[in-house]
Amino acid sequence: VALPGRPPEYAAWNGIDMASLFTEPFDLPVFVENDAAAAASGEMQLGLGQKYNSFFYVLLSSGLGGGFVVDGAYVRGANGRSGELGFMLAPDGNGGRETVQTLVSLSGLSRQLEAAGFSLTDIMHRTELAPEVQACVDAWIEAAARRLCTPMAAICCLINPATVLVGGRLPTALVEQLASRVNALMEDQADVLPAIAPVARAALSEDAPAVGAAVLPFSHFLLPKPGALWKTPALVGGEAVTAF
Predict the structure, then answer these.
(1) Which backbone phi and psi does 96 adopt, to 5 degrees?
(2) In this predicted structure, what is the pLDDT of residue 206?
(3) Whole-angstrom distance, CA of residue 183 vs CA of residue 199
(4) What is the predicted pLDDT for the residue at 224?
């Protein structure tokens, strides 16, 4: 998938069978999942999923991904690509439309910083930003929050989650600032939407994809699955019986 600002080196992975790289030295099952789905799964098992039974997870990384959990179960979709809000088209503020992730991603933030003479290194792992850098980030957060309102309205109407959780590699303080601004903007649509899910920072935030990847085999082998208690009806003495 072509992502905005994607380094050309990423293409080297296009034809790689990831599972085959792990066949040595152990012959064990290998689970391959996209990062947003892994993040949602990690949050479901070890984050705010313990509080919210249904939520939509937004992963802000080089691109913009998402995943949603309904009744404590991650929903993959027919092709395993549910929740891909980054590819949705939204107004660009200039009378046109472009994909949400063109702006709402680390790639989008990086381009805005570079246009002002800064870079992502000026905001990462810093407790306080220089005033001129903060001003640039504030402008991006305002534009990104407005761009996110289009998919947020769709999520609220189509999925009706208890909350929308935002995580990824953006510094924690900026995630909270973005979530707060989206909440304020969504309140302006309260009279036309049937329900509005509050947006908040995910508990695992930056670590969610890695934690989710580690949880995958446990989820597969040990954790209960929806419908696992249902068995195929069998005929006993001419009558259909379903075992629990």
Answers:
(1) -120, -165
(2) 77
(3) 6
(4) 66
What lies within 8 Å, CB to CB, of 77 at 6+ separation is 83
Q: Which residues contact 33 (CB under 8 A, 6 or more apart)?
A: 41, 212, 213, 216
pLDDT given for residue 26 in this prediction? 77
Asked whether the bond before 25 is cis by omega within 30 degrees of 0, the reply is: yes
Angle in degrees, CA 161, 164, 170, rounded to 5: 165
How far is residue 105 from each of residues 58, 61, 173, measured CA to CA in Å?
11, 6, 16
DSSP 8-class letter at 198: P
Which pLDDT belongs to residue 197? 97
Question: Residue 112 and residue 116: Cα distance in Å, rounded?
Answer: 7
Task: Render the burial of 6-44: b for 16+ CB within 10 Å, e for the rest.
Answer: eeeeeeeeeeeeeeeeeeeeeeeeeeebbbbbbbbbbbb
Give the per-residue pLDDT at 4: 62
Q: Which residues of the chain have pLDDT under 70?
A: 1-5, 224-244
Kindly compute the dihedral angle of the four CA atoms of residues 32, 34, 40, 41, in this order, to the nearest 10 degrees: 0
Distance CA 209, CA 212 (A): 5
By C-alpha distance, which of 39, 44, 45 is closest to 65?
Answer: 39
Return the CA Rg of the chain: 20
What is the per-residue pLDDT for 9?
86
pLDDT of res. 165:
96
Give dist(CA 238, CA 244) in Å, integer: 19
Separation of alpha carbons 206 and 192, rounded Å: 33
Q: In whole angstroms, what is the distance from residue 200 CA to residue 106 CA?
A: 18
